[in-house]
Amino acid sequence: MSGRARRGRDRGPDAGAEPYERGGWGTYLLLGLFTAVSVFPLLWTAVAASRTSGRLAQSPPPFRFGRNLGRNLSVAWDEGGMGEALANTAVVAGSVALGTVLFSTLAGFAFARLRFRFRGPLLLLVGATLLVPPQLGVVPLYLLIARLGWTDQLQSVVLPSLVSAFGVFYMRQHLLRALPPELLEAARMDGAGTLRVVWHLVLPAARPAMAVLGMLSFVAAWNDFFWPVLALTQTGNPTVQVALTGLGRGYVPDTSVVMAGALLGTLPLLVVLALFGRQIVGGVMRGAVKG
Amino acid sequence: MAEDLVERALPLAPGPPGPPGTGRRRLGRLRSRAAPYVLVAPFFLLFGAFGLFPLAATAWTSLFRVELTAPEAREWVGLHNYARLLTDDFFWNALANTVLIGVLATVPQLLLALGAAHLLDARLRGRLFFRVAALAPYATSVAAATLVFALFYGRDQGMVNWAIGLVGLAPVDWQNGPWASKFAVASIVIWRWTGYNALIYLAAMQTIPHELYEAAALDGASRWRRFLHVTLPGLRPALAFTGLVSTIGALQLFGEPLLFSSGAGASGGADHQYQTLGLYLYEQGWVNLHLGRAAAIAWAMLLLLVVLFGAVRLARVARGRRARR
Amino acid sequence: MGRRNGTPRRTGARPRALALLLAAALLGGCADDPPVPPPAGSGETVDGAGRPVTLTVGVYGTFGLKEAGLYDTYMRLHPDVAVRQTSLARADVYYPQLLTHLTAGAGLADVQAVEVGNIAEVVDTQAGRLVDLAHAPGVEENAFLPWKWAQARTGDGRVLGLGTDIGPLAVCYRKDHFAAAGLPTDREEVGRLWAGEWRKYLETGRRFAARAPEGVAFTDSASGVMAAVISGARLRYYDAEGRLVVAANPAVRAAWDLGAAFAEHGLTARLQQFTPDWDQGFAHGRFASIACPAWMLGYIQDKGGPDGKGKWDVAKAPRPGNWGGSFLVVPAAGRHVEEAAELAAWLTAPAQQAVLFERRGSFPSAEAAFGLPQVRGARHPYFGDAPVGRIFSAAAMGVPVAPVGPKDGLVNTILSDTGMLQVDQTGRSPESAWRAAMKAIDNALDR
């Protein structure tokens, strides 16, 4: 970004940067509307999850909570497999976030501050894959994990997700700014080995970006859809999205149970969002990941 | 090309890109010459296995007739799978749907996000609340969001038809209507991503110096004109970035149309009216069991993106030349 | 909270990282299951030291074996065997996964269910990966309907699947709605309304429509009628030589035309089968009759709920037909192939098939079960104590034996969900929808 921009009020997105305009009542009204539209489908998911499917099939739709929430949640948890699915998803999203952050930081550092053969071409190669739709690789990937006997195994979802071209770029960009060459030069003069440099200089400097990348990767992995639906099955280690797909396309459970499943699958992220809203808003504003 | 695009577009990409040519401080001198390779190795191992290998293997697979019933029994067909795409009405239908739904989803989404960001970029009480609430849809998964919206759009008992009935309009068949269904699918995408994009725009807006606004205000510019002439130009990188990401996302659209109807599955509606390319690929591979044809669709999708971004880039270069003249 | 301008500029990395850690911990804590459950494949327990063998049965939908308590009985009879079931809701999701698992030789259950629409393809392409059950202990060829036995037999005489149930056809109808429209309600009289010809079912529908109660259609969907008519044809989508004849077969076209006639006369509730809306159609009595194979009775009972009890009844279908039915196969890659074959043989033996019919309504594919009192004398309390044993036995005996083909399931789906659904729901002309369906079939079958 240009120097002009940096002379601006770049005080960090979650800090109290003071905007130029003052919000009038019109602003509040429109923002209120925007917020209502953003939140309503989620609220209504909870309403629907507390009703019976018979009531959901009547018009006008219900707007108040019913008394079936407990029953629907427990059916979704047990028969819909949402309990197991939540545990699986936590494992998958946690591993993906940790792994992505680790590998992207190391590679990002190397691309930002180290010189090696094919650095340019390799970076270009990684960048080019940003354009590649995830659908592109699924056929051979599917055959590969089938051959490895990994269908229904969580690693079939975790390992491919660790490859984040965005992560490498993002960490590289951050380290270009946060890790001045002088610092590394000084460390080298002191005779520090690569491992020590990484541990004592790179990781501390990268930490804010690592947190952001970890958060974005976690959400992306939690909500990842296309590949898990192919690689996992409802009966073998489903993630939340796989289990929900099963509920949504199945003819066994009823609509209110499907809504209870949707609620269960979304609630953890919403709770985290409510608790760490400031950090997550800051994270999104610092970097963006495709979803 | 992609590297370039992303570097230019990352909203908060700080400073000029690295100093590859600035000579003096060569960091390759860190102790071991192998160190850089060790650091990038884990990434590239995975990248090779799960990034490049599938890419190449898809290209290879697309040259065969391969069925899911017996993937090891493949029959060489050369470019037949591609050639038949040219005359495959279902492919062109899926392509048109992808583009239409993509436009229906992306344009309103980014405009709404721009408006929301502008609203958020004001001194407000409860600012954090508004921002967090805007992210709630982003935290909601494709599956959960689509299942709820599918209920909203129910033909007989859906909330949307109930609401438009209140205003005295006739109910709409959101599943079967060729336009209605595309709009409905697009609306799920809009809902999920508007707040997220708004925050990206907001971040970019906050880097615009106050002095520019003040100067504009001194010139007597209205709030609207200040938005048009100060805010928008400052957002150009962020606009490019969100445009890029949304376009890629639109081309890959899959979960929303798959789950939009519990009865349609991969067909994208009785008349394939909202079948996207991603969904068609899935149908060919995992319903019709033709993996070779699915692989060819996958490569066609990549080709489309490359052509699309190539065209954008050419247009830009051409405009740059004209401007310089 | 947004206005605290005094907030230090750097809310900093440490708190944020901490937040993420906490978040991860919180999420991990949400579920009380162990993080990585054991794989769902074949039994984990080893049978070496007298420990029990665990056998898994992979099914789709509500298959009924578990619901009928058959696994429990088996475990009582075999204390050294534990039986578990894994179930996928939809057959169209289940089947591709079964194929991949067979290809990979991993992720398989010890016994897997296969729908009749897929059995020919399984026999054609997966023979090498499945166990020959013809001579497994407890299997008696003579017990099965000959055509059911033959459907899972390869050219060289191996039998890869044992029939569980078949889908003899009847018509389920709501007595209250029939009475309101001035039609008879007694099942014998109702059966006579359309005996011998599906066209009479249409005529009854038009009579019904003339005096129909508000908001009640005669039948659920045009696709349902079409499927029922096709189920009585001697030739369906493939001929005896295995050639696809769907476009040229007059029987298919006749079924199509009749289904379309229901749509065009507005006699359907315009629902799609096996969707939540359809379920609600049962719950709220939105249609007065439906062509029902035996296995649908349990479904109607589940979705119709207590309110529907006594309102439904079962009458003979215009013509006998067979709609659906399933098989059990044993993958050769399983760890306990012999035990699995024994289980499959037991589950499909006449006595157990009779129990499945008695408790769930899935009609036996074992001819030897037809005479058992549980079958012959069965009455269904939900359907006004209709003598379902007698009705479905009679229907089963009259079923014409049609050749099955590898893509039967896919053709079925396209004819219904791409073709007839449009005639029914969007008013597309039958001719144009037929062409669309034929085109989709050609594309799907790669012709």
Quick tags:
heterotrimer; A: 291 residues; mainly alpha; MetI-like fold; 69% helix; globular; disordered N terminus; C: 447 residues; alpha/beta; D-Maltodextrin-Binding Protein, domain 2; 9-stranded mixed beta sheet; 19 helices; 44% helix; transmembrane helix (chain A); transmembrane (chain A); transport (chain A); membrane (chain A)
Structure, explained:
The complex is a heterotrimer of chains A (291), B (325) and C (447). Chain A is mostly helical and 291 residues long. Chain A is built from 15 helices and one strand; from the N terminus they run αβαααααααααααααα. In chain A, helix 5 runs antiparallel to helix 11 and helix 13 runs antiparallel to helix 14 (255-275). The longest helix of chain A has 32 residues, at 82-113. The radius of gyration of chain A is 23 Å and the shape is globular. The two termini of chain A are 24 Å apart. The model of chain A is unreliable at 1-16 (pLDDT under 50). In chain B, 68% of the residues lie in helices and 2% in strands. Chain B contains 14 helices and three strands. Chain B is globular. Chain C has helices at 13-30, 70-77, 91-104, 116-125, 146-151, 175-180, 187-193, 198-210, 222-230, 250-264, 276-283, 296-304, 337-347, 350-360, 367-370, 373-376, 388-397, 408-425, 430-444; strands at residues 53-60, 81-88, 111-115, 161-174, 217-219, 287-293, 312-316, 322-329, 363-364. In chain C, strands 1, 2, 3, 4, 5, 6, 7, 8 and 9 form a nine-stranded mixed beta sheet that branches. In chain C, strand 1 (53-60), helix 2 and strand 2 form a beta-alpha-beta unit. The chains are: A mainly alpha (291), B mainly alpha (325), C alpha/beta (447). Chains in contact: A-B, A-C, B-C. Chains A and B meet through helix 1, strand 1, helix 2, helix 5 and helix 6 of A and helix 1, helix 2, helix 4, strand 3 and helix 5 of B. Strand 1 (21-22) of chain A pairs parallel with strand 3 (122-123) of chain B, so a sheet runs across the interface.
How many structural domains can be distinguished in the coordinates of chain C? Answer: 2
Average pLDDT of chain A works out at: 84
Mean pLDDT of chain C: 87
Radius of gyration of chain A, CA atoms, in whole angstroms: 23 Å
Q: What is the CATH topology classification name of the largest domain in chain C?
A: D-Maltodextrin-Binding Protein, domain 2
Question: What would CATH call the homologous superfamily of the largest domain in chain C?
Answer: Periplasmic binding protein-like II
> What is the second-level CATH architecture of chain A?
Orthogonal Bundle
Order of helices and strands of chain A: HEHHHHHHHHHHHHHH
Question: Given the structure, what is the number of helices of chain C?
Answer: 19
Count of individual beta strands of chain C: 9
Q: How many separate structural domains of chain A?
A: 1
